[in-house]
């Protein structure tokens, strides 16, 4: 039996499994668990760190920046979050033009979706 089955409301279990998925290069599953962790415990930095890390693995650098920034709003002086936030910013700068175009289209689509709500 899995620990999450015994206590599905324990955010730490999702954060830990998210890390395991990241180490197994299953970033989609890691992201899912990181999001669940955040839903269960919004004030805990670990969820935002895991989410940003999963998004970095998926090369979704803008979204990774957003996740790390959300964590930094909870703890502005957190040097580890500042470091990975800067790494995400640098990764965005190194993106190729087609990757940047794709990211801008996704942002525009997201903006359009929120305006229609």
From TrEMBL:
TPR repeat locations: 45-78
Keywords carried by this UniProt record: Repeat, TPR repeat
GO MF annotations in UniProt: Hsp90 protein binding
Pfam families the UniProt entry points to: TPR_2
Cited PANTHER family: STRESS-INDUCED-PHOSPHOPROTEIN 1, TPR REPEAT CONTAINING PROTEIN
Protein name: Uncharacterized protein
